[in-house]
Amino acid sequence: MTVTSTVSSALTIGLRFFGIWPGVRYSTVYWFSFMSSLLIVQYFQYLYVFNHLKISELSNLVDSLIATFDYSLSFLKLGSLWMHRRIFNRILTNMDKDWFECANIDQHLHIMRIKANISHLFSNSLLIFNTIVAALYLSGDYIIHFIFLSGHYNDTLRQFPIKIQLPFEMQCTQSPIFEIIVVIIFVHAMLQVWTIATLNGLIFTLVLHVGGQIDIICHELKSFSKDTLLRYFPVSSFRMLVERHNKVISFSENIEQLFSFIGLMQVVWNTLLICCLGFVLIISVYNETGVFMLVKTVFAYLAITTEAFIICFAGEYLSLKGALIARATYETLWYDMPSDRSKYIIFIIMRSQKRLAITAGKMMDLSFETFMTIMKASASYVSVLYAMY
């Protein structure tokens, strides 16, 4: 099957389902329906948190905060993406134009197909990984009860896949109402997890597309020989490179506008989530059911850490790729060229001094350094919680 887009089919289906993809009929209805369901679940989640906000129930409280914060982050991400949907539409339009321009040049098309294949593989792998982790995490309590507590299991101790406080609690624990609610909550929680996987795959896809365009510019610059630069190379080709470079800068700025607020929420929420999971991970070692709780928590910890790493990697990748343009341009023989041609090269070098980056609310660049800051802060909070426990 010939690849014709950097965006994978899985991402396209996910964005259509959540009403974000342009041109979808009744997209507002899809988006509003899912956001309303998130709000309803959030209400019952925070109701549970407030009812168990006690130091004596610290372990249970922290465990409930994991899914609660995850839901809140998904709600904020979808809300931000909806508010910036015009920018998103512009990004998709520019991506289609880039693929159209590459269609007649085999080398350019080859570069973009490599990036697209990596994007598709990563998006599908992330979706599968998140699905497995979510299924283990949501069903972990049931597995533990089945293996360790089957002899003492009581209908009054029935638990939902996530910690929520429903009205008429006694009636909700009776069959078949309980089973129906469990299925509904499980399916909704999986949809929320797929939301996270879709949005993480989206930012990775967009920066890979920019990376492909930058690789094309660097390839064209490196293909210039001395004779070509000094004698035969037409000025129009230089202008084409300048225009392509301007498109890369504009595309990167659109990504920054689209994910700046999302990046800020990601840093804050992921720090709290990694902190909570780290605390649960520590206390599960001393728990009677520690083996299964440990497996459940480790997978969740890896998923949240991966989520934080992806957005930081995207910012680092974009910055490094932007620096490659200045390096490739400077390595050409621009200093031996006539002034009417060298000015285009100098212009590209000057524009390359503007660093391409994704920021967290325009307060800090998302990079590997930011990721390490998240991990260090989370470890500090874990030690405080463990001391309180």
Automatic annotation (TrEMBL):
MF (Gene Ontology): odorant binding; olfactory receptor activity
Keyword Oxidoreductase: no
InterPro entries: 7tm6_olfct_rcpt
A GO CC term attached to the entry: plasma membrane
Topology with respect to the bilayer: Multi-pass membrane protein
Residue spans crossing the bilayer: 29-49, 121-148, 267-286, 298-318
UniProt-listed Pfam families: 7tm_6 (PF02949)
Record localization: Cell membrane
GO biological process per UniProt: signal transduction
Major site of localization recorded for this protein: membrane
Record keywords, A-Z: Cell membrane, Membrane, Olfaction, Receptor, Sensory transduction, Transducer, Transmembrane, Transmembrane helix
Transmembrane helix as UniProt keyword: yes
Domain of life: Eukaryota
PANTHER family in the record: ODORANT RECEPTOR, ODORANT RECEPTOR 19A-RELATED
Family in the record: Belongs to the insect chemoreceptor superfamily. Heteromeric odorant receptor channel (TC 1.A.69) family.
Name of this protein: Odorant receptor
Annotated source species: Cardiocondyla obscurior
